[in-house]
Amino acid sequence: MIPVAVESLDALPLIAILRGLTPDEAVAVGEAIVATGFRCLEVPLNSPDPLESIRRLREALDGRALVGAGTVLTVAAAREVAQAGGQLIISPNTNTDVICETKALGLLSLPGFFTPSEAFAALDAGADALKLFPAEVAGTKGLKAVRAVLPATTRVYPVGGVDPDSMGQWLAAGASGFGIGSAVFKPGQSPEQVGRNAAAFVSAWTEAAPPR
């Protein structure tokens, strides 16, 4: 397996978190999101039959978007995601065993952290990027403070409470990108509505992000 490069996220570092997605709607919803410019989709493992959704999304979007799993809490779960075709592993916590296994599988590792100690433990274990969670509790001041001690090249993705209007404030505080959940996808929404939600974030990113 060819390892996935974290740089593949940099063109548009927005991750759509599809909590509650079902396999039967996965491809239509995924296509609607990717059509707006998103290049990364996450199916949390506490969704209905998440591995099947990941399989279908990977097959439909291969070469156009990265597909992976969120809420990955164990080494065994990381292996199952890899077998389903997942390309990245995202967790709400810092579990160094999961991070090490993710990298051994050739997948991208984006573990969650809330404290500097967790952030450095994740980086030491090989994490490709960090998920600040819950971002709405840490706030932009919390991100700015931890940014002061992290290596400058560290990619940090706030998750939780980010909307198009606040994206610029988070970027000014040091955000590299964002994971976006219910503001993009809620169970029961049509693909058309999800596409409109996603497009609002792409537009906000284009306006707020510094030139690359």
Output mean pLDDT: 96
Oligomer: single chain
The ordered H/E elements are: EHEHEHEHEEHEHEHEH
Question: Which class do the helix and strand fractions yield?
Answer: alpha/beta
Q: Strand order of the main beta sheet, please?
A: 3-2-1-9
Describe this structure in words.
The protein is an alpha/beta fold and 212 residues long. It has 8 helices and 9 strands. It has helices spanning 23-34, 50-61, 75-83, 96-104, 116-125, 135-147, 167-173, 191-208, and strands spanning 14-17, 40-44, 66-70, 88-90, 108-110, 112-113, 130-132, 156-158, 178-180. A 4-stranded parallel beta sheet has the order 3-2-1-9, covered by helices on one side. It has a 3-stranded parallel beta sheet with strand order 6-7-8. A two-stranded parallel sheet has the order 4-5. Strand 7, helix 6 (135-147) and strand 8 (156-158) form a beta-alpha-beta unit. The mean pLDDT is 96.
Could you outline the blueprint of secondary structure elements for this entry?
Blueprint: E1 14-17, H1 23-34, E2 40-44, H2 50-61, E3 66-70, H3 75-83, E4 88-90, H4 96-104, E5 108-110, E6 112-113, H5 116-125, E7 130-132, H6 135-147, E8 156-158, H7 167-173, E9 178-180, H8 191-208
Parallel strand pairs: 1-2, 1-9, 2-3, 4-5, 6-7, 7-8
Q: How would you summarize this macromolecular structure in one to three sentences?
A:
The chain is an alpha/beta fold and 212 residues long. It has helices at 23-34, 50-61, 75-83, 96-104, 116-125, 135-147, 167-173, 191-208; strands at 14-17, 40-44, 66-70, 88-90, 108-110, 112-113, 130-132, 156-158, 178-180. The strands form three sheets. A four-stranded parallel sheet has the order 3-2-1-9, covered by helices on one side. The chain has a three-stranded parallel sheet with strand order 6-7-8.
